[in-house]
Amino acid sequence: MENFSEAWESISNYCKNNISDVAYETWFRKLKPVGLDFDEGTAIIEAPNNFNKQTIIRCYSELLCDAFESIFGKGISFQLLVRDELPRAKAESSTEANDYELTFDSFVVGPSNRFAHAACVAVASKPAAAYNPLYIHGSSGLGKTHLLHAIANEIEATDSNLSIVYINGEEFTNEMIDAIRSSTTPLFREKYRQADVFLVDDIQFIAGKDSTMEEFFHTFNALHQANKQIILTSDRPPKDISSLEERLKTRFESGLMADIQPPDLETRIAIIANKAKQIGLDIPDNVTEYIANRLKSNIRQLEGAVKKLKAYYLLEGKPLNITTAQAAISDIMNNSQPTPVTVELIIEEVGRTYGVIAEDIRSSKRKKEISLARQISMLIIREITQLSMVEIGEVFNRDHSTVVYAVKAVEANVKRDPHMRATVEDIIKNIRDR
What we know:
By secondary structure, this protein is an alpha/beta fold. The protein has four domains: about 1-85, DnaA, N-terminal domain (GMP Synthetase, Chain A, domain 3, 2-Layer Sandwich), CATH 3.30.300.180; about 100-260, 3-Layer(aba) Sandwich (Rossmann fold), CATH 3.40.50; about 265-335, Orthogonal Bundle (Helicase, Ruva Protein, domain 3), CATH 1.10.8.60; about 340-430, DnaA protein, C-terminal DNA-binding domain (Chromosomal Replication Initiator Protein Dnaa, Chain: A, Orthogonal Bundle). Helices cover about 60% and strands about 10% of the residues. It has helices at about 1-15, 20-30, 50-60, 60-70, 90, 115-125, 145-160, 170-180, 185-195, 210-225, 245-250, 265-280, 285-295, 300-315, 320-335, 340-355, 360, 370-385, 390-395, 400-415, 420-430; strands spanning about 30-35, 40-45, 75-80, 135, 165-170, 195-200, 230-235, 255-260. The strands form two sheets. The protein has a five-stranded parallel beta sheet, sandwiched between helices. A three-stranded mixed beta sheet has the order 1-2-3. A hairpin with a 4-residue loop joins strand 1 (about 30-35) and strand 2 (about 40-45). The longest helix has 18 residues, at about 370-385. It starts with a helix and ends with a helix.
């Protein structure tokens, strides 16, 4: 499993280098490696939904075959499955197959996360008896997801009869939208309200989405009243999620709240050493300190740098020295999402917030809710990407004057309407924190 997870990064990079940024973000970014059976010669990949699965099979099968061959040679095929098609143990946690190392033992504890870690250990040892709900908040890449899965893995090891359900706020929103469109809302509710342990990552993504917040409110109440354990994570405390309903804020704040801060130097060094040990890499102390002194705010970046060092060492034969470390972290130090990718993410996030699909936002349809989503997309694209009005017009196949009018109209509405202002601010925050 570990080998396939590491190989998947190389497979993903192969695909990314052979298609456009927008195509990669749209179709490949959310694929997850599940497992690789060398005896059967089959790799299993999880797709986020059936539409994504069918599009990749139809349009990108040859690319994926080439990517697998570039890493494993001939003889390995792939099978693309959505969550419901996976074995039950995998279906109960969409990322369980990809978190073989996400346990309490592999979590590096330091002053910045000690309280949150202790709270999670307490919840895992006695679900619904210690802190319920448990709300963990902190910036992206500080270990919140690791702790969620550590809780799930610990509870699963202790009592495999408990139903453990993991999802992130973005996926919950997407599933809610699909359920409404397909008239399967009762099944959607049953899926989440039967959980004994309900873990929700990045809960901030439900903010501003009225139908999703309504459904989550009732799901939360049903589980809490039934004495089921609820654990939530977010990039900020509830009071700072502007467009989150007050009744949800009060419920999220009713249990224990624990924040995680960026790790100090000693913790960063320990994280690098721990990750290197996991993947069998012996990094010299001066190289470890070099990386720790430059990547200061994101654990995910530290671990990514170690993986990239290993790739340079194994694939290109480069020595494990500071020069190689400089190359390994150069992309991270200068990281910025390409404008086409950011534009696509903005349109998708606005669409989720206002309950319309991205294709309609880019279309010529004039329904009120679609036009509003389109205008807000234009404003946020201008705010985040600094594209010109002409360039934004090209994204939507509109002329310069239409974009100018749209941006001014939304700016005026944002000034007058506190709810719209909060919603726009949260969308911008969600995009910038990805």
